[in-house]
Specification:
The chain is mainly beta. The protein has 2 domains: about 40 residues; about 300 residues, 7 Propeller (Methylamine Dehydrogenase, Chain H). Helices cover about 10% and strands about 50% of the residues. The chain has 2 helices and 32 strands. The strands form 9 sheets. The protein has a 4-stranded antiparallel beta sheet with strand order 3-32-30-29, with no helix packed on it. A 4-stranded antiparallel beta sheet has the order 5-6-7-8, with no helix packed on it. A 4-stranded antiparallel beta sheet has the order 9-10-11-12, with no helix packed on it. A hairpin with a 4-residue loop joins strand 18 and strand 19. The longest helix has about 35 residues. The chain is globular, with a radius of gyration of 31 Å.
């Protein structure tokens, strides 16, 4: 307040104090500071809204991943229900599945489990054996009541009794044992070692390693062909299919499977001399002529296909993958195939098996926070 005295009396003039930001030379100042504050408030509100949106979407995605729901409607498959498996921890991942006689064997990779489901019971019953290392391929070794399972992490093949699930022996093998197959002609267990790029051979009678075969790339699924007596092996890193004679301990054929990129799952139609190969990178089912070493047709599948199974009685090919669906394909003839349906299941339900007698299809579901399970389907025929 300034007071002036003069002839005209006292005059008062109101003055504004100097802002501290001016005194201390802080920029911005005055109206600029007010505008900045308003802008910051708006920015914080927007940021809070985005955080809330992300949290909501993450919660919704987690709920979607955890809740299995019911498979989508299909004109090719009828959903029969689920078989629940024991849960271990928050995340449960399943790997290879195969039907042997009345049993369905499932590898619980994340828990190191071998699940045996009795399909002959009125209500399928589940028995479990747990060990160390991640489980992958499971196969029976002939008529000796022996079964074999690959275990990565510990780099071993465990021998067990399939009737009792009793552990019998452990056989050290090369890095990353994964797919497994039995050659009844030579009574040898064939093990594909992914990271090592080779195959380990195991003598069933001796329960011991009998040799190795270099594969020239990273192997994925393998399958035994009873007609030729050969093991067929997908080589994922080179986009090839290899034919292996275990009697001679060598590769006797090798072919490109392009247009397939990253061949994963493999199944064989021995009667028609065809191999069915699913391709992880470009979502294809490639039909391969085993007699002439060439692809004859390719069909689209769901994203990230990993497993494939062939029902010789119904002449159907089923493929599953990371996207969570089942591709159903009909074999019209050796060189003619047609997609019948794409059935939605659950995210990462990538493993499957088909029962050649009942024609039921089994699809393994990974799980988050709930029990892992097997979806059971019956074919519908038109």
């Amino acid at each position: 307040m300034f007071i002036a005295r003069g002839g005209g009396g006292v005059q008062q003039r109101q003055t504004r104090s100097r802002p501290l930001c001016r005194t201390w030379k802080i920029e911005p100042c005055g109206p600029d500071l007010e505008r900045l504050g308003a802008s910051l408030k708006i920015a914080l509100r927007v940021l809070a809204g985005l955080v809330l949106l992300v949290v909501t979407l993450a919660a919704a995605a987690l709920a979607w991943l955890a809740y299995p729901g019911r498979p989508g409607a299909s004109h090719a498959l009828a959903f029969d229900g689920y078989i629940l498996l024991p849960r271990h921890g928050f995340l449960n991942v399943l790997d290879y599945m195969n039907v042997e006689d009345r049993w369905l064997f499932v590898s619980g990779a994340s828990a190191g489990s071998v699940f045996r489901i009795d399909l002959g019971a009125a209500k399928p019953s589940v028995t479990e054996w747990r060990g160390d290392g991640r489980t992958h391929g499971i196969v029976l070794g002939g008529a000796q009541d022996l079964a074999f399972v690959t275990r990565s992490g510990v780099n071993a093949v465990d021998v067990f009794n399939p009737s009792t699930l009793a552990h019998l022996a452990r056989i050290p093998v090369a890095d990353d044992p994964d797919a497994i197959a039995y050659d009844p002609k030579h009574k040898i267990i064939y093990v594909a070692n992914g990271d090592a790029g080779l195959a380990t051979l195991i003598d069933v009678a001796m329960r011991a390693k009998a040799g190795t075969i270099a594969l020239g790339g990273k192997p994925e699924f393998a399958a035994y062909d009873p007609v030729s007596g050969l093991i067929y092996q997908n080589i994922e890193s080179t986009n090839e299919l290899a034919a292996i004679d275990l009697g001679e301990r060598r590769i006797v054929g090798r072919w490109t499977v392009r247009p397939c990129e990253s061949p994963t799952g493999l199944a064989i139609d021995s009667a028609n001399r065809r191999a069915f190969i699913v391709c992880g990178k470009n979502a294809l089912l490639v039909v391969f002529d085993l007699e002439h070493g060439r692809p004859v047709q390719s069909l689209k599948t769901g994203f990230g296909p990993d497993g494939v199974a062939f029902d010789a009685g119904l002449r159907r090919i089923y493929a599953t993958g990371l996207a969570g669906n089942v591709s159903v394909t009909a074999e019209i003839g050796p060189d003619l195939y047609r997609n019948l349906d794409l059935v939605s299941t659950h995210f990462a339900a990538h493993t499957l098996a088909v029962d050649p007698h009942t024609h039921k299809l089994y699809v393994g579901y990974a799980s988050l926070g709930v029990s892992p399970r097997i979806a059971v389907f019956s074919p519908t025929l038109h």
